[in-house]
Amino acid sequence: MAIEQAELDAMNASYKSAVENWIRAIREEEALASPAEHGEAQIDQWEAAGNTEEAARNQAKAAKAAYESALREEFFSF
């Protein structure tokens, strides 16, 4: 069963968007890694940013897997 080009394009766009969100989360975590102040609140923010980054990474990986699977189906029929 052929996959519509529009569907592949949407999956590609979803993957790219997820990667951009992941990059943004990495940069937010990085910004918190070297705070001007070192305290409990800053550590909590840094840990929360780490959790956000991990969730964004998982979303990007899932979007990539879905897109790759669709491409395999389209080009190799498996």
- Termini gap: 10 Å
Q: Structural class per helix/strand content?
A: mainly alpha
Number of domains: 1
Averaged pLDDT, please?
93
Number of helices: 2
Q: Beta fraction of the residues?
A: under 5%
Q: Radius of gyration from the CA trace?
A: 17 Å
Give, in order, the helices and strands: HH
Low-confidence runs (pLDDT<50, min 5 residues)?
none
Give the topology.
Blueprint: H1 5-33, H2 40-76
Structure, described:
It is a single chain. This protein is an all-alpha fold. The chain has one domain. The chain contains 2 helices and no strands. The protein is rod-shaped and about 55 Å long. It starts with a helix and ends with a helix.
Summarize this structure briefly.
With 78 residues, this protein is mainly α.
Structural key phrases:
78 residues; mainly alpha; 2 helices; rod-shaped
